[in-house]
Specification:
The protein is an all-alpha fold and 402 residues long. It has helices spanning 8-27, 33-40, 44-72, 74-94, 98-116, 118-127, 131-162, 165-176, 179-182, 200-208, 211-240, 245-270, 275-295, 300-313, 317-329, 334-363, 367-383, 392-401. The chain is built from 18 helices and no strands. Helix 3 runs parallel beside helix 5 and helix 6 runs antiparallel to helix 16. The longest helix has 32 residues, at 131-162.
């Protein structure tokens, strides 16, 4: 029998590249807030609500995409997500009315991210390696997404400055098209060929009946709140404080750079220590770092120190949370279950992006949004502690053996 060219290395490389493109483009959306608002005369809440809808639908459509990937294979779903990305970016370049902006962001860009991000890509990669290396490989793929943020943010800023924000979006649509050929490496049997007598519906009902599934969901809510709010509003927050726009762009790029190290470390540590305690530690330190940004004078040094610190924790929750889902519930329906948990992340993203924009337009300050971020970090640190990390299969087998 001829050996398939889709080796674990090829799948990892393709998955990493897809994550880099998908997240590199997404991370730059905050750079379009001010030029779009100025050109069309919108308040910041309009663009913020649009990105918030995008994040919410990313989670909702991502759960559907995960189920489709487990049922029909991930390659087709990833290619479909890439097509949505291309159309969504082109649409964003020409749309001039708020309601069309919201529809485009929700269904095209939301569907694009749902089909090309964590839930599906990490599940495919996780199925190709042994359980003890799964967390590390997921960390590598997540770090690739951060590299895309580090690499594409300056490119996006240069495109906006040298061409226009309209032309920048069209160039990014061309970059998104590269995902289509890369999706061929992820084509394969549904569920990665992992045998199971359980149906998709039964797997979902089983997960919903497990308390840990809900705890991970709401812990991820906080992660989404933090990341989306900072990604979209940090550049404007920095400019409002009297620093240059380049300072905000550099801070986001530093977050992406340091997150490459942070996610690799989180993935490595997740294979050796309790994932739930690592998650609790990450959220606790996040709350401290955001407090530093709020209560210390905002200088370039303070901003960059914050960016480096938060970057180390930025997406470290992803390999740990997705690893816990696979560890507890198994890998057969990991794409769907991880995507459902990730919906909690995107509900948090919706609240964080839109809420921060709403608070700014009504109070003239981001103070309320940052204070909420601190409180939610403490909440997430606590809510992850009761998660039972023992696989459900072992829990079912224990009474039978007794």
């Amino acid at each position: 029998m001829q050996k398939s060219w889709r080796t674990p290395f090829v799948i990892l490389a393709a998955g990493c590249t897809i994550m880099a493109i998908s997240f590199g483009i997404r991370a730059g959306f905050g750079l379009f807030l001010q030029p779009m608002a100025l050109e069309y005369g919108w308040g910041r809440e309009v663009f913020s609500f649009s990105i918030a809808l995008q994040n919410l639908m990313w989670g909702a459509l991502g759960a559907v995409a995960g189920a489709l990937a487990d049922r029909y294979g991930p390659g087709r779903v990833v290619a479909g997500g890439a097509i949505c990305y291309i159309l969504g970016l082109i649409g964003l370049a020409y749309i001039a009315t708020p309601w069309l902006l919201h529809v485009n962001a929700a269904f095209l860009l939301g569907g694009a991210l749902g089909g090309t991000s964590f839930g599906i890509i990490l599940a495919v990669i996780g199925r190709t390696v042994a359980p003890e290396r799964r967390s590390l490989y997921m960390g590598i793929a997540t770090a690739a997404g951060s590299f895309g943020q580090f690499a594409l943010l300056p490119v996006t800023q240069v495109l906006i400055a040298s061409l226009s924000w309209h032309a920048a979006l069209l160039v990014l649509a061309g970059v998104a098209a590269l995902i289509i050929p890369l999706s061929l490496a992820l084509a394969g049997k549904p569920g990665g060929g992992v045998a199971s007598q359980q149906s998709i519906g039964a797997a979902l009902r089983e997960a919903i009946s497990e308390k840990g599934f809900h705890l991970l969901f709401w812990g991820y809510f906080v992660c989404g709140f933090h990341i989306a709010m900072l990604t979209v509003h940090l550049p404007a927050f920095v400019s409002d404080a009297g620093l240059k726009p380049s300072h905000g762009m550099t801070a986001l790029a530093l977050i992406g750079l340091f997150n490459m190290v942070g996610t690799l470390c989180a993935g490595y540590l997740g294979g050796r220590f309790s994932k739930k305690y690592l998650l609790s530690t990450i959220y606790s330190i996040r709350a401290l770092l955001i407090s530093m940004l709020v209560f210390l004078p905002l200088t370039p040094f303070t901003l960059y120190a914050f960016a480096c610190g938060i970057g180390l924790l930025w997406l470290g929750t992803v390999p740990l949370t997705n690893g816990l889902v696979g560890q507890i519930f198994g890998m057969r329906y990991a794409a769907m279950l991880a995507s459902v948990v990730f919906f909690g992340h995107q509900i948090g993203s919706f609240v964080g992006v839109w809420g921060a924009g709403w608070l700014y337009d009504h109070t003239g300050s981001y103070s309320g949004a940052f204070m909420a971020s601190i409180g939610l970090g403490i909440f997430a640190a606590i809510v992850n502690l009761p998660v039972n990390e023992r696989p459900l299969a072992e829990r079912r087998a224990a009474p039978a053996a007794a």
